[in-house]
Amino acid sequence: MSFTTLVSPDELFAHLDDPDWVILDCRFSLADAEHGRRAYAAGHVPGAAYAHLEEDLSGPIIPGTTGRHPLPDVAAFARTLGAWGVDERTQVVVYDDMGGAMAGRLWWMLGWVGHDAAALLDGGWQRWCGEGRAVTAEVAARPARVFTAAPRPGRLVRATDVEARLGDASAPLIDARAGERYRGEVEPLDPVAGHIPGAVCAAFEENLTPEGTFKPREELRQRFRTILRETPPEHSVSYCGSGVTACHNLLAMEHAGLSGGRLYAGSWSHWVTDPDRPVERG
Hints:
Elements: E1 6-7, H1 9-13, E2 21-25, H2 35-42, E3 49-50, H3 74-83, E4 91-95, H4 103-112, E5 118-121, H5 124-130, H6 159-164, E6 173-175, H7 179-182, E7 200-201, H8 217-228, E8 237-239, H9 246-255, E9 262-263, H10 267-271
Parallel strand pairs: 1-5, 2-3, 2-4, 4-5, 6-7, 6-8, 8-9
Helix pairs in contact: 4-9
């Protein structure tokens, strides 16, 4: 049995010594790019390797051309996965300390390159520690494997695709940023405030309970069904600031049985590189 959306601390604990399970610590702060690496060095789930958002899960930034976290080259990402010990036999478990805000990106990327046996540790680092689970500062050496990518380009949309369908109710746009950023009241990261015209605000934090675990499947299903209305989920496009937290919404939808949503990976930070693209506020 493979896990494809969420995994509990109990389920992960039972497989800590399984050579076919790979654990990846994705802790990261947009305000401090070394926060996650320091946190990992201080203590992590036994056997976990560290996955850095900007070094491992993003490609080079080209000012004025890409967003803040462009996807890496598929071949380069495949080599990274292989170095972590991931191949077609591997169950991957990802976690962070932000309810999955960062780790969800790696979950999505694994599916993008054809690896479905990937799941997020529900409740993340806080739940693992809160339940008194083992923690170590030791960096375990894992033998490398060969990861063969089977890319799924249909999971992505480009800015031109989004532009072509602006105002099309049959292609809903889902914005994962907080309401104040969506409305353009504040913009701490990008040079222009607002959202893509017609997008619906669905802040990723609202997928979680106050304890930081994902809400029940039926509650998540109702949340996104309200946004989608009668539209099939595979017609929807999710975005955020830079293609990271949008993956949290895609994970929540997948967990709720609403599979097939696509990602605008460049997201808002890419959208605003072209001053001719329309912007909506409020």
